[in-house]
Amino acid sequence: MRFQKEGCPVVEMDNGTNHPDLLVGPKSHHIAPFFSLILILILIFGLCLFQVSAADHQSLSCGVILPLSGEYSQQGTSILQGIVLAADEVNAEGGVNGHLIDLRICDDTGDPDTALHYFQEMQKENIPVVIGSFTTDLTVPMARESDTHEIILISPTANGEELYGISSRFYQIYGPVTYAARSISDWLSYTADRVACIYIDDEYGRSFYQDIKSGLNDSITISATIPVAQDETDFFTFRDTVLDSAPDSIVIILYDHRLIPILQNLTDSGYRGKIVLADSFVIDDLEKNASDIISKFFLFTISANSNLVPGVQTQKFMSDYQEKFGEDPTGTLAGYGYDSLMVTADAIRLGSENETISLSSIQKGFQKTRYFGVTGPKVFDAHNSVSPALDRYVYMDGKFRLLTTSLP
Questions:
Q1: Domains, the chain, ranges and CATH?
Q2: Tens-digit pLDDT profile for residues 326-347
Q3: N or C: which end of the chain has fewer CB within 10 A?
């Protein structure tokens, strides 16, 4: 396999299937030598579009737009590694209807304008399917464009309410935020009297909070609401706002590293009640780097979606991922990258007639697919979304322990 950009050197990989140093995963704290080379090339030549070449074979291009550097690089990297694993698996079996998957990968750096730029470039190149990006804010501009252009966009993880039904050519692998919000509301209605909510002040956080609020029993009091600006880093002042309202439960809707200083401030202020995390994106970091902080609370998560569901297919995925990348994908988003590519391949197979692949045939295939992935079943509704599997974790004895995974 090789990575190439026009005017740049070609980096040959062994036999097109194995590339252990391609990327670092979410649990790594160093940059692998090959990934360092890629970053150097980006710095020298500017952000650029990479191609995974399927030389000497008929190929089908699939774009990938993810944050591979910047604040969300760990999440973007794990998603990409899942996609790469799936593409290798599909290609090893001869591709899809005789077409090898040709990945075109680029780094949006966590910037919506950059993501949209690459999406528009892929439109010009007549790439039929693009997988991306990580957050709702990164994905919305691309999803809007997909409705007026001949291109399909598949989001592996973005699930803010604004995306639901946004375009006839936009598909969500990660179920809408409404499902998780409803589950959290139900749990709080049985276990809490006064609830404070800390949420990231973007489309995702605001919609998540509103859905939780609308689902609570009338007897539950929302004692405080604290929106966290995307660039906010000082959390000393708002902890008093939260705790002066005397909540018995605090819901935190945040998906980045700032969760740790927020929890630190709550610990330092003496809060010892229940905390519900609305996402499990950072539980690995919390477990490894903040165990002394989170041990002070009754910490519970009702994740927006399940990272991995039990089953033979998931066991194989975990084994193959471990062999290829040297890491355990449990607790990462790699499964959503894997399922994004796999359900796309399934849709192409199901929709194609006489081995002819077109935009309309792929869309027909998405409506026919009943793919059961490593993150749960993928059956698309009238708005091109799926009902999610939901994980529930509790922190006990120094570890997050999975209590249940509920399937739709």
A1: 2-175+310-387 (3.40.50.2300), 177-304 (3.40.50.2300)
A2: 999 987 899 999 999 999 999 9
A3: C
